[in-house]
Design a protein that fits this description.
The chain is mainly alpha-helical. It contains 6 helices and 4 strands. It has 2 domains: 5-56 and 127-146, no CATH class; 60-120, no CATH class. Helix 5 links the parallel strand 3 and strand 4. One of its GO terms (biological process) is transposition. One of its GO terms (molecular function) is hydrolase activity.
């Protein structure tokens, strides 16, 4: 299998010689400047490794979508018991893994509203898409910068 990566140049920021860059989860130069911290203009290897983005998977990975309902139920039950609140609204795209009789039946029986955003428009879920992307990048940078085992 061949996987291609894409690294936006504006995400390659300062070196590890700037401790604030590491401590803050490898923010970009703009964020460093806004905080009034010094910017060191050289490539950070942690940023380079962790801010790569894989290009889309081949079709054979789509078979994993069949597990979406079972995994959703597990996460939903865990969150409801953890926060002692019932799910009120579920917003999802119109992917086949979310639009089916199982999800419709669960929404009706558990009393939550299932809202579908327009198909093929991640822009409608932009806040969540970008928030998740940012959190994952920061966690990856902190983990790899700490030299801890990947299991954490």
């Amino acid at each position: 299998m061949h996987v291609e990566y894409s690294v936006p140049e504006n995400h390659l920021t300062t070196t590890a010689s700037n401790p604030w860059h590491e401590r803050l989860g490898s923010p970009g130069n703009k964020a460093i400047r806004m905080m009034g911290l010094p910017v060191i203009n050289s490539t950070c290897s942690t940023c380079y490794l962790n801010k790569m983005h894989m290009l889309p998977f081949d079709k054979h990975f789509e078979e994993l979508k069949s597990d979406a309902f079972e995994q959703f139920v597990i996460v939903k039950n865990r969150m409801e018991s953890l926060h002692d609140q019932k799910l009120k609204t579920l917003v999802s795209d119109q992917g086949g893994e979310f639009v089916n009789a199982k999800f419709k039946s669960l929404a009706e029986s558990d009393g939550f509203v299932d809202i579908l955003s327009p198909a093929k428009t991640p822009q409608h879920n932009g806040f969540l898409e970008r928030a998740n992307w940012t959190i994952i990048e920061k966690a990856r940078c902190l983990l790899n910068g700490s030299n801890l085992p990947k299991k954490y």
